[in-house]
Design brief:
Distance between the termini: 34 Å
Radius of gyration: 18 Å
Strand order of the largest sheet: 1-3-4-5-6-7-8-9
Helix content: 10-25%
Strand content: over 45%
Largest sheet: 8 strands, antiparallel, barrel
Number of strands: 9
Oligomer: single chain
Order of helices and strands: HHEEEEEEEEE
Length: 194
């Protein structure tokens, strides 16, 4: 968790040091999304086990300091899935939930003169992985990083829709597992301040 706090402080210093002209033109937005998460579990020295698909929900509050960058200042997502396969000593039939709270960046072209806005993304977060089987629940916060890509389309002056893909990974050291997930979602973006 110390690593996450250090990274978030560094990001904050970077944004404070943005040129004043960029800050004067800053826009703010809110986004909600829903989709599908496909988890993967890789035990140390073992083969990757694909998990069952789970429903994904998420939301972001962010700022756009310039036409080429959006910063999801607060990015939240959650998915839950039932796993019917054995993973790294965990018997088949356990519930797996993933709660993520962090920050992320979208680099693309977001100026008003384009309707389509393709972008790539990078995220850093705290990830609460929760394993549950027959009333026995194990959970803990871990560091998570993510990369992805997406595209948005402006349907109105201050509203857009989008599709995004995100790959995330974190180390769940209680079971000597590396967790990763492929997340595909649809998104609604509303500019709340321009």
């Amino acid at each position: 968790m110390k690593r996450l706090i250090t990274i978030l402080l560094g990001v904050g210093v970077l944004c404070v040091s943005l040129p004043m002209t960029a800050v004067a033109d800053m826009k703010a937005y809110a986004a909600i999304r829903g989709g599908l998460a496909i988890p993967e579990f890789e035990p140390d020295g073992g083969d990757t086990v694909n998990g069952k698909n789970g429903a994904l929900v998420g939301a972001s509050l962010g700022v756009q300091p310039m036409d080429f960058l959006r910063w999801d200042v607060i990015d939240f997502s959650y998915f839950n899935a039932w796993q019917s396969r054995a993973v790294a000593g965990l018997p088949a039939g356990f519930g797996y939930s993933n709660l993520v709270l962090g920050t992320g960046f979208r680099a693309g072209y977001f100026a008003d003169d384009w309707k389509w806005h393709p972008y790539v993304s990078l995220g850093l977060a705290g990830n609460r992985s929760i394993y549950e089987r027959e009333g026995d629940r194990k959970s803990r916060w871990y560091f998570q990083w993510s990369v992805g890509a997406g595209v948005e389309y402006d349907i109105m002056d201050r509203m857009g829709i989008g599709v995004r893909y995100q790959y995330s990974q974190s180390d769940f050291d209680r079971f000597n597992l590396t967790e990763s997930a492929h997340k595909i979602s649809a998104e609604i973006i509303v500019m709340v301040f321009e």
